[in-house]
């Protein structure tokens, strides 16, 4: 089992989770984070740290596409281990539906 970042991270991109990760398995895109499935050790400390509740265990039903997205982008986006301030409009996007189709950016973030 591993953890996976889901659609509510898009345009929220809180980075509280990266500070607590003992294996530094978060990778940063332009407007969301992903977890590298081969690096995650299933410790679960990141899940309660996410204000947007966007981190889920990969055993939850319906996450297959998110597991793939996390694995794919973790290979090309830069690693992030340091917490930064979220986007100014993060609260406006928390809970918005259909964020993947409307707002997802495949571009990498800045990383550490």
TrEMBL record:
Domain of life: Bacteria
Keywords, comma-separated and alphabetical: 3Fe-4S, 4Fe-4S, Electron transport, Iron, Iron-sulfur, Metal-binding, Repeat, Transport
Record's protein name: Ferredoxin
Domain 4Fe-4S ferredoxin-type: 1-30, 31-60
Organism: Methylopila henanensis
Cofactor(s) required, per the database record: [3Fe-4S] cluster; [4Fe-4S] cluster
Family annotation (NCBIfam families): FdxA_Protbact
Chain segments carrying region Disordered: 80-112
């Amino acid at each position: 089992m591993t953890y996976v970042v889901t659609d509510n991270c898009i345009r929220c991109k809180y980075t509280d989770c990266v500070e607590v990760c003992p294996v530094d398995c978060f990778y940063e895109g332009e407007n969301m984070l992903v977890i590298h499935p081969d690096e995650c050790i299933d410790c679960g400390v990141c899940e309660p740290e996410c204000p947007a509740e966007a981190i889920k265990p990969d055993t939850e039903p319906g996450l297959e596409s998110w597991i793939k997205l996390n694995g794919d982008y973790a290979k090309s986006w830069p690693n992030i281990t340091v917490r930064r301030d979220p986007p100014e409009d993060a609260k406006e996007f928390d809970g918005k539906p259909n964020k993947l189709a409307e707002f997802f950016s495949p571009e990498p973030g800045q990383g550490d």
